[in-house]
Amino acid sequence: MQEIVIELGRLRPQLIRGARMFVETVTVPTLLLYVLLHTAGLAWGLVAVIGWCALTLGVRRLFGQHLPGTLLLCAGMLCGRAALALVLSSALVYVLQPVFGSALMALLFLGSAAVGRPVTIRLARDFVTLPAHLFHHQGVRRMFTQVAILWGVSRVLDAGMSLGLLHWGVDAGLLSRGLFSGLLTALTIVVCAAWGARALRRMPGVTLRLRAAV
Questions:
Q1: Residues 92, 19, 158, 94: what is their CA dihedral angle, to the nearest 10 degrees?
Q2: For the chain, what percent of residues have pLDDT higher than 70?
Q3: CA 171: distance to chain centroid?
Q4: pTM value?
């Protein structure tokens, strides 16, 4: 049997990019809204969130930096949330929108796992180099199905956590989205990566290795 070598992307640059994106699209907007909500008012807080998104993308464009699709998606969703909350003059709307988003993500991951076409297979292609025929391997598909279930359960917990903290008020809801949700997502990434690597290492004829620096 020919040995299959799977190259994992360099971890440090990916972690740095992920941390920077988390700060740009979660931490700073949440802090801006929280501070201005209690000082200048809801409208100014939401305008500041939209302005921060525009500033973040504008600075990257000005200095010729690459605009990742994930950043554009997150910034677009954040602006949409803030704009809708601004129109309705409700901070509760701003906090509730990602709760519904988490619920939809849970349906996507769990539903794709249930029908045997885990969406995690497509997502994995952005981070791991896998031979095309390996995606048809029963064990590999089972692993991706399990990871999709883990992500689905994580999104259910995320939505439930946010709804639970909202009973304590909007401030608690903002804390949930700005801190606890991010920590849960980071933990889920670590668990899913460890689960997937463990499953692949246990498959005969498969070798994992980090991509060498260029």
A1: 10
A2: 82
A3: 22
A4: 0.71
